[in-house]
Write a structure and sequence with these properties.
- This protein is of the alpha+beta class.
- The protein has five helices and eleven strands; from the N terminus they run ββαβαββββααββαββ.
- The strands form four sheets. The protein has a four-stranded antiparallel β-sheet, covered by helices on one side. A three-stranded antiparallel β-sheet has the order 3-2-10, with helices on one face. A two-stranded antiparallel ribbon has the order 1-11.
- β8 and β9 form a beta hairpin.
- It is globular.
Length: about 240
């Protein structure tokens, strides 16, 4: 049996955009605004899906509908533009060492997680490199039911050892040795061998960034209580049921 999201409304997702601006509802004026090349902030984002959303826990996502919704809620270190070229997202820049073994990501400052009860006082806090370390370690934690481990095992230093330890119910202190916090806004990944295509891996959907507090507060229900840094957040409508 597996849990997945069933949404109580046709449009599957109602996300409130986190921004300042107009409270106008979509309609004829919105169409006119679009034609005039202007941007309307705020409101509700609706999208249709032909399948139900199975999960919003990034490490367990392996279906397109879940990724479509998650991409509105979470950000990654890097992402693809419309030409499938890597572009900065949460990382404002990154570099690769001359030997091709270390990828270093410099995080943007002032990026805030959504306000959520998982934080003290319900106020979101600033993203830092420990958050990035947490989610990359979690991708290699077999106890989460992760689908993303195979991309990093055998490539990142310590990834295979960490995954195999968690298969036995253990979590080595310090997490994956090849995922390193350099300082509060710098994160590094150490490879076992040079692998040019690795630069694309942090743009995989398993690598959406979210806070440890959300996982700890919601536990097994984190999959329907996502907390991210993107312009949208899940407001309501989700409920879970068992499915074979």
């Amino acid at each position: 049996m597996r849990l997945f999201l069933r949404y109580a409304f046709l449009t599957v997702l109602a996300c409130s955009l986190v921004s300042c601006g107009s409270d106008d509802t979509p309609g004829a004026k919105s169409d006119s605004t679009l034609q005039n090349g202007e941007i309307t902030f705020g409101g509700i984002f609706r999208m249709n899906e032909v399948q139900e959303i199975r999960t919003l826990d990034p490490v367990k996502m392996n279906d397109a509908p879940s990724h479509h919704v998650a991409h509105q809620i979470y950000d990654m270190l890097v992402d693809f533009d419309s030409n499938l070229t890597l572009q900065p997202e949460l990382a404002e820049r990154w570099e690769v060492s001359p030997d091709g073994l270390t990828y270093t990501y410099h995080l943007r400052k002032g990026v805030m997680f959504h306000d959520n009860p998982c934080f003290p006082g319900g106020k979101g806090r600033e993203l830092n490199a420990n958050d990035v370390k947490f989610i990359f370690d979690r991708i290699l934690d077999a106890r989460t039911g992760t689908f993303g481990d195979s991309y990093f095992r055998g490539k990142v230093k310590g990834a295979t050892e960490y995954y195999e330890a968690t298969l036995k119910g253990n979590a080595p202190e310090g997490g994956v040795s090849g995922f390193r916090v350099v300082d509060s806004h710098t994160f590094a990944i150490d490879l076992l061998n040079p692998f040019a295509a690795f630069k694309y891996y942090p743009a995989l959907g398993f690598c959406y960034i979210y806070p440890k507090e959300a996982v700890e507060k919601y536990g097994k229900d984190f999959f329907r209580n996502p907390v991210g840094t993107a312009p949208s957040f899940l407001r309501n409508g989700a409920r879970a049921r068992n499915s074979p």
